[in-house]
Records
---
Amino acid sequence: MDRLLQNIKIAINDNIYVKDPESSELGRRIIEYSIVLIDEIGFEAFTFRKLGERIGSNESSIYRYFENKHKLLVYLSSWYWGWLEYQLVFATHGVPEPEEKLSRAIEIISRNKVEDQNFGHINEVLLTRIVINESSKSYLTKEVKQENRDGYFVIYKRMVHRLEEMIRTCNPNYKYTTSLASTIMETSLHQHFLKEHLPSLTNGGEDNATTTFIKEMVFSTIKK
Amino acid sequence: MDRLLQNIKIAINDNIYVKDPESSELGRRIIEYSIVLIDEIGFEAFTFRKLGERIGSNESSIYRYFENKHKLLVYLSSWYWGWLEYQLVFATHGVPEPEEKLSRAIEIISRNKVEDQNFGHINEVLLTRIVINESSKSYLTKEVKQENRDGYFVIYKRMVHRLEEMIRTCNPNYKYTTSLASTIMETSLHQHFLKEHLPSLTNGGEDNATTTFIKEMVFSTIKK
Amino acid sequence: MDRLLQNIKIAINDNIYVKDPESSELGRRIIEYSIVLIDEIGFEAFTFRKLGERIGSNESSIYRYFENKHKLLVYLSSWYWGWLEYQLVFATHGVPEPEEKLSRAIEIISRNKVEDQNFGHINEVLLTRIVINESSKSYLTKEVKQENRDGYFVIYKRMVHRLEEMIRTCNPNYKYTTSLASTIMETSLHQHFLKEHLPSLTNGGEDNATTTFIKEMVFSTIKK
Amino acid sequence: MDRLLQNIKIAINDNIYVKDPESSELGRRIIEYSIVLIDEIGFEAFTFRKLGERIGSNESSIYRYFENKHKLLVYLSSWYWGWLEYQLVFATHGVPEPEEKLSRAIEIISRNKVEDQNFGHINEVLLTRIVINESSKSYLTKEVKQENRDGYFVIYKRMVHRLEEMIRTCNPNYKYTTSLASTIMETSLHQHFLKEHLPSLTNGGEDNATTTFIKEMVFSTIKK
DNA sequence: GATGAATGAGCGTTCATTCAT
DNA sequence: AATGAATGAACGCTCATTCAT
């Protein structure tokens, strides 16, 4: 992305963190290296102690920012979806044609991600990999319902509802707009996962194959 | 299901377990109560110690059957898919019409599950809930690739390939058969998850809505 | 008590604190809310962090006043005994009859306490409960001897010696004046503790039963 | 004590421990060295980790026997009271004269303790010191009431009730039997504490002074 | 003088696992 | 084959305290 947006900051629900990691140097290091480390060793093996070692800081300092590693993952996921949402709004703003709008939205969500210079301390490529591999763990817990009530997933849900709205504009008579919207989101992640880890379960090998697959599926489904 | 099948046994790849849990009373208790306990407290909080307490046996005995709790989850998932595969084969066998065949397959995979009297020690309703809530944790690990090589996911993959084959029979020209097949599998689980935990992200509220949604999507996608 | 004494201040040995908590608003808030909080959660669970949160101040500020929570407890105990001593002196001053004097002293020490309007920021009822439940922890430590040398318990000891003196005046031949005096002090606390927590170990249920019990015991013991 | 009683075992309420420490060598070492270590460094500084180091065993093994250090202290206190109770029963059994009986009981409770050869792994002298210095911490907690309900203090309470019964036999008209009984128990400990740490608050310096003091006090109090 | 941020150390606990029976 | 006991290692977290402002 261009650098016009240098001052923007992805806004995250403030009861996900204890202290805003964007508010200090240490906070930003926590974000930067948690992404690197989770990608390296997986979320299961990731601990605040190891992160502390990596950033040359005591784990107790990290507790000033996040109550536990689970909330840190929720934060990273939220940031990811906030970042995608930003791109989606930017790319679809002012596009009059509903099909074109939805097409661009699917593209943003399902394409291969590249680094974004606007957020120096965040490696979006690694983060995307984390979201693909681990983010379901942020909601597949016994506490989903409470966390949902606490607004942990607002950005994700807003994304789904934006898609839903676009689908409805394309075809007001289509019955399963919400399910289709959430399927777009989930399929985007899942197909990328398979491509990486279980390639025999996908045709997504070539560039943009996933995007094309989803677009075809969505548009034939909602065609009047 | 009827009870004609009383003697059948779902065959599970034998390097998932150390000792076949179907081969002893203790083994069957391990399976029975691991399902109950994981459903109760979640896979994260589930430990062999707690399972041992529940079945009145020492945790070390459980190690005779499974190397660790992760493999036990792989076993349960495999069993689930094996069970579904059985139903799928049974329901589609001898159906000449390709569309009808695929339609029945989707139905088997995505419908709400009920208890199956053929497997007394397994509560299929709870198991389905576990697969919906937790099974992604069985492959979302750093070790997927190795485990795939070890054949942990053969049944799942065979299911995908069966679907793929049916899709191809319906329309030999459709390009993304594998992706569509894996999307059917994943969407079936995901929509049920949303229905349960984040209902605002699905239209799947009514009976069979998920099945209808998927069928519509699939058939419009592959329509010649 | 009447309000004639508005300007009095209980004098506490100044090496118990770093900075006199009576010398500032923050100091008084520390005293006020430490009493409330210790009563609420117990001394064990009480920390400067929690106290800081309660008074809307950083824990590091509290360290300006007290080196650690143990010294704060010593301070509170000392304040309690200083407060009791004041009442004792006030109530026995000018009483010529030795038995009457001792009787009034025992009364002061063992009666149920009520709030004293002279010290607005201190809730004497809660403080009494703390002294009953927790104050032994202020001297039951490996450091008693050193702390005694440092004068941490002067007020308490002065109280014992005042009682001792009164006992001796009643009966100059009684041999165990000091032990009896310290037993009066300890029994007053202990019986109140039992009344509250293990009532089957006391007859102290009715009003003033503890006072009557102690008086009877003391006077029969020292009777010539 | 003589060695006639070699086979006796002090019976402790079995929900104080997870596994009976008398049932294994490791368990007995835990008891033996916890007494030594608590006496050495104080209960506050005592941790299972340090105990583990001392007995050359991992702290996790200790958790097999006691849930936490607080319960271990409850166990030690209970053992102490059980041991005293045994002596008390033994010393008063068959004594017809009520005053003599009570006198012997007070003696048992308040005298200086010496090692008892019947319990090889327990150093009764150190244990007595622990009970004097630390045991109040076993009941001065926010959880007393619940723990009382759970029977943690049964032996202590039985001791009080035995004393109470003896007092009543001496003088059926005395009103405060329970309070006097609990005062005997408490004063015995407290005077020994003072003798050791704050000797200016006691006359208990000479041998048996505490015993004599208490006996005089009790008998003059209940004298008809 | 009061505060906010950061830290090191250690606690209590649990887990997965092994060993001996 | 199944069990019970024991262990090492690590986790999550909190505490008391210090430093810089």
---
Amino acid sequence: MALQESGEMYLETILILSNRLATVRAIDVAEQMGYSKPSVSRAVGLLKKDGYITVDGDGFLSLTHSGRQIAEQTYERHILLAKFFIRLGVDEETASADACKIEHVISQTTFEAIKKHAEQSIQPDV
Amino acid sequence: MALQESGEMYLETILILSNRLATVRAIDVAEQMGYSKPSVSRAVGLLKKDGYITVDGDGFLSLTHSGRQIAEQTYERHILLAKFFIRLGVDEETASADACKIEHVISQTTFEAIKKHAEQSIQPDV
DNA sequence: TCAAAGTGTTAGCCTATACTAACAATAATA
DNA sequence: TATTATTGTTAGTATAGGCTAACACTTTGA
């Protein structure tokens, strides 16, 4: 079945953690997301079954090609949306929280339109 | 408990239908949303229990004050977001679909920032 | 009048996704 | 080495919110 919103969130979290830590395991994901170990264990099993991540013998998680694609796409959306909201005057925390919700439901079409708009309306620091 | 995304969607639908029909009943909501009668029946029961709508002896649905507030807020978000996306070059259908998702998850803060931005950047027809 | 259509409800099922409790396996250390 | 801590899994629970099947009214109209 297609990846749900929560699946995207797990992949994005794994990406972010792997940019910060040498290795990523389920417990790191649980701590980062504020979820219980069993919830993450289950999610990891599903993501693995569907080919989005691999888990090696030591319990280290890695994104597969398709998993990484989704994680990066989601993360790009997050960064750009949050930046855009901040530029509109929204505080960082709210901007990030909203980006975190919207990144999963927005279409590629609309995201790209916002991206183009945001890039166009950048005010250079003269 | 707090109103969920689906509850907002029901209230918004009832508002839209009541602007279009003399009376609104569960079956109209079901047809409009593409849901089954039992799903709507259940949702109507919950919305009624929580004081967002009333149902009279003939099965006609009305928004209460709090229900109308939420419906109007949600609808306002929908309209403004969709317009904004369309102005950025997104086709109507996609813009509306995205607005429909985002309207439920965006914070008031971020919505107002987008609203202000959208109003500022209106290009008057000279 | 009596059958058919329209409307709503009840009962029970399904999926997604979180949770706790309890256990198992491994690693670290007194 | 024996205990404790860390990590992961299993089993079962809960909530939200769809669904179908089946039934009960009510209204309509031949």
---
Amino acid sequence: MPKRVTMADVARAAGVSLMTVSRVVNDKGGASKATRRRVQDVIERLGYRPSSIARGLATKRTGTLGVVVPDNSNTFFSEVARAAEHIAYAANHNIFLGNTEEDPQREVGILRSFEEKRVDGVLLCSSRLADDTLRAVLAWHPAIVLLNRRLEGDPVSAVLIDDETGGQRATKHLLQSGHRAVGFLAGPPASYSGRQRAAGYCAALEEARLTYDPAWARSCSPEIEGGREAARALLAHHPELTALFCYNDLVAVGALKACAELGRQVPEDMAIVGFDDIPLAALVTPSLTTCRVPRYELGSRAMELLLSQVNGHAGESRVVVVRPELVVRASAP
Amino acid sequence: MPKRVTMADVARAAGVSLMTVSRVVNDKGGASKATRRRVQDVIERLGYRPSSIARGLATKRTGTLGVVVPDNSNTFFSEVARAAEHIAYAANHNIFLGNTEEDPQREVGILRSFEEKRVDGVLLCSSRLADDTLRAVLAWHPAIVLLNRRLEGDPVSAVLIDDETGGQRATKHLLQSGHRAVGFLAGPPASYSGRQRAAGYCAALEEARLTYDPAWARSCSPEIEGGREAARALLAHHPELTALFCYNDLVAVGALKACAELGRQVPEDMAIVGFDDIPLAALVTPSLTTCRVPRYELGSRAMELLLSQVNGHAGESRVVVVRPELVVRASAP
DNA sequence: CTGTTAGCGCATTCAC
DNA sequence: GTGAATGCGCTAACAG
């Protein structure tokens, strides 16, 4: 590892002062065309790369942003992260990515590590933190945008999915097909969006003058296996169910599997609706009826919000709400 | 934004020197239990967080690693990235994530930005850079590990998939089931892994004393639709085929569709084997026999390699070859 | 066991 | 237009 070329090296080789090199590098005024050119040539020749670390120490801005998601191997978040990175890259920022693995302690750990790295801001997706904890976290970072998580009473920017409306539409769709016994696979109990979707589920039931029966709802981990297990358990106790509204598409696919194992035909014996519209939804058999959530837009809007906050509009908080759209496929025609 | 607590603040409040605080923070020897405790209390009380930026400047190690992938919204890479982050987190490192979007120029741009951030090392996945460009990039970073990319002639660490063996095993499985007319949907002609898998296909045929017939192979775009079209075309000209080995699972799913359309039962009239074992593979009907590429393992092994390199074993280069494993399901029992 | 002296590489005052 | 100090927050030698 040959030691790095520094600004001082460039200055010496170009016969100018540190200051002049700094000006050229940062494209500031105050440097004649001639010296500017000369300096640039030396930079090229020596292969000089400014150190963001040193610059960060001096300016207190690192050009880095943190993105924390529950699980990057989940399509939803991987696409949000990709969108966020895309926008950040265009603004000359790099992003740290952290996976909480649905573990609040780990989430806090990641947020702390980002703080130590002195990120300029954080995009926090689907936080599982308790309100108070989250409130504390806000103080750790100069800017923060929540995605898919609300925090009442604090002026914090957020990009939200209208989960309640989504859940209501999905459930309503099932009810309108004549189903009276609609179960709910609710996802993680700590999930904010889960609770919102549950609210939509209840609202639709109420609208149809049906009473909400807690026994027909069951929480589960938000993956295929979680959905499969929960569906099996739920259907074992409540064979009367003829339809299932699921927290997300992965859970719905798990439910699909469970039905196959239990010999219940979808959609004949059991209608199923998911949430998100991940790529898999269109490819499973039967294809999945679901609520489409525009993932790329979610991620890019959130990152745009964050960048605007980082670039001066620090105090301002804005909330963007994105409404999901029902996509009808074979699992619940 | 209240200004940050610094080490000096802690030192003053605890009535000790900077050095002592530094020692406590970094858990180094040389600090009596008593002062250690006192300092720790002050740190807690003041909410002090050490600055990785300042530390990085002083130590020339930032505790950050770069991970560059073509597209984080692709299951393959999002899982690799997650695995990498997982391992890095356990080693107290944060990762920058960059998406090249399959664009070499952008790939270079990301690698440069990582250099400016002074990452301790880079995990470069499926690089699209030309050999010479890649060789140049090696000099930008103190450590680098390639994933799914080879670079002949240079001592660079890499984690590779043994596509040839995978292709051979898949084909052999079909041959051992009694098939003598095994077709091959080859994927994109330009794909390196495609050529490797083709080599495995040929090797298996040879081993069974069958001659390779180019007419039984057909290239296609590596998606469902590509597989469907190629399968239709191939079977139209060669109805004698009783089995298909496919470039990847998406192509195989396309072939499945084609068979359904042509009225050929899978696996009775036609056996099909895919590659990758994406989540979809287990979920289609019939479920897909395929070569599993262990994505998590790929990412974690690569990150482990990178970390070992970062932690002293700088010069050493190691190549890890991960062998895919045949997963037998319904499409080719 | 503890404190003092120097930088790490750069940007930000100010002078000239 | 350009340059000389000074400091960002921390750690690595050295002293005591």
